[in-house]
């Protein structure tokens, strides 16, 4: 079956989306969709969509044993959903929320293809709904967990004394993720001084095509940022957060630091109190706090989301809060 990993990232032009000899090839149309709609977007989003498309191509190859575009029908889509929901994850089911994300990619791809080269039996996603799922459990930290993480970060700043370890950079990233609610990808794209000056982050590229003209940086974040710039980074223009060689820091470096930080904080805690720390948990923590203190509209504005459907994920009460409310209101 077609391997999407070989796709050329350079967009093709609409008149030559698919060669004449490949006009009935599902793999060729997936290539066209990738080039026109996905390539050039955020790296992590593109990687996820690549996996979504390749997973379906592999399923078609194993079970339908054809690459003809018209053999992708609603029956095939429903069978694929059933496979994902029963044994698609190495013999185990995928989580319903993951399945719905996979389907969102394929649904958009099917709509793209059907608009240009209609499927014989109609759009293969017509009448195929998402799985119904409960609201996800909030991923944010409670006040005690945040206190423990921040305390651990303050200690690591003093323990990591070598300049190449960049302890102030790591602490500044932690505070900025929490203090602004930015996604990690949005924060790491910022340059200095173009995007950070006068107490604000400026011209922030958000998810999709949205941009935020300016975003206030809380005082404690600014103080740590200024200390990092003065003592570790230097004032030369370029990426705001850099490695010891001056290159833009990668997300993997931040993930590694956050895991190290969580391990340090968890060292003296019982297993059932261990903190699962990742960049998005800090975003959840900030937006949930803003929603409770300032209202959902304020949190939505701060989030940078275009639609409203995602903001509710950040403000859902925890199971413990639901239980406490039920007891209090009885």
> What's the mean pLDDT score?
88
SSE ordering: HHHHHHHEEEEHEHHHHH
CATH topology of the largest domain: hpI Integrase, Chain A
CA-CA gap between termini = 59 Å
CATH class of the largest domain: Mainly Alpha
Name of the CATH architecture of the largest domain: Orthogonal Bundle
Overall structural domain count: 2
The total strand number stands at: 5
Largest sheet: 3 strands, antiparallel
Main β-sheet, spatial strand arrangement: 2-3-4
Backbone structural class: mainly alpha
Q: Helix tally?
A: 13
Shape, per Cα inertia axes: globular
Q: State Rg.
A: 23 Å
This entry's quaternary arrangement is single chain
- Quote the beta fraction: 5-15%
- Specify the helix fraction band: 40-55%
Q: Which residue ranges are poorly predicted, with pLDDT under 50 across at least 5 consecutive positions?
A: 5-15
Could you name the CATH homologous superfamily of the largest domain? Intergrase catalytic core
Blueprint of the fold:
Elements: H1 26-38, H2 43-63, H3 74-86, H4 96-116, H5 143-159, H6 167-180, H7 184-188, E1 191-192, E2 196-197, E3 200-205, E4 211-216, H8 219-233, E5 238-239, H9 251-266, H10 279-294, H11 296-303, H12 311-315, H13 319-328
Antiparallel strand pairs: 1-5, 2-3, 3-4
Quick structural overview:
Helix content is 53%, strand content 5%.
3D structure, described in words:
With 330 residues, the chain is mostly helical. It folds into two domains: 4-116, no CATH class; 143-317, Intergrase catalytic core (hpI Integrase, Chain A, Orthogonal Bundle). The chain is 53% helix and 5% strand. The chain has 13 helices and five strands. It has helices at residues 26-38, 43-63, 74-86, 96-116, 143-159, 167-180, 184-188, 219-233, 251-266, 279-294, 296-303, 311-315, 319-328; strands at residues 191-192, 196-197, 200-205, 211-216, 238-239. The chain has a three-stranded antiparallel β-sheet with strand order 2-3-4, with no helix packed on it. α5 packs antiparallel against α6 and α6 packs parallel to α10. The longest helix is centred in the first third of the chain and has 21 residues, at 43-63. It is globular. The termini are far apart.
């Amino acid at each position: 079956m077609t391997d999407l990993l070989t796709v050329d990232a350079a967009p093709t032009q609409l008149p030559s989306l698919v060669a004449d000899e490949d006009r009935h090839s599902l793999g060729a149309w997936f290539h066209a969709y990738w080039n026109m709609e996905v390539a050039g977007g955020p790296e992590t989003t593109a990687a996820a969509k690549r996996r979504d498309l390749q997973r379906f191509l592999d399923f078609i190859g194993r079970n339908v044993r054809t690459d003809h575009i018209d053999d992708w029908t609603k029956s095939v889509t429903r069978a694929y959903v059933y496979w994902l929901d029963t044994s698609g994850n190495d013999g185990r089911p995928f989580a319903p929320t993951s399945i719905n994300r996979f389907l969102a990619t394929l649904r958009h791809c099917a709509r793209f293809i059907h608009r240009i080269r209609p499927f014989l039996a109609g759009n293969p996603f017509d009448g195929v709904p998402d799985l119904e799922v409960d609201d996800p459990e909030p991923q944010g930290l409670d006040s005690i967990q945040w206190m423990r993480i921040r305390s651990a970060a303050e200690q690591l700043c003093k323990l990591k004394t070598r300049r190449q370890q960049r302890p102030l950079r790591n602490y500044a990233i932690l505070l900025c993720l929490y203090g602004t609610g930015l996604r990690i990808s949005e924060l790491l794209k910022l340059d200095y001084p173009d995007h950070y000056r006068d107490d604000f982050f400026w011209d922030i590229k958000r998810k999709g095509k949205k941009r935020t003209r300016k975003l206030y940086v809380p005082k404690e974040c600014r103080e740590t940022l200024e200390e990092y710039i003065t003592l570790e980074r230097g004032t030369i223009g370029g990426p705001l957060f850099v490695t010891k060689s001056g290159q833009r820091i990668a997300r993997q470096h931040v993930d590694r630091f956050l895991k190290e930080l969580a391990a340090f904080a968890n060292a003296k805690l019982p297993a059932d109190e261990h903190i699962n720390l990742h960049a998005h948990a800090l975003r959840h923590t900030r937006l949930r706090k803003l929603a409770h203190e300032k209202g959902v509209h304020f949190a939505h504005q701060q989030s940078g989301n275009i639609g409203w459907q995602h903001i509710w994920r950040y403000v859902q009460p925890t199971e413990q809060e639901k239980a406490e409310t039920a007891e209090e209101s009885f």
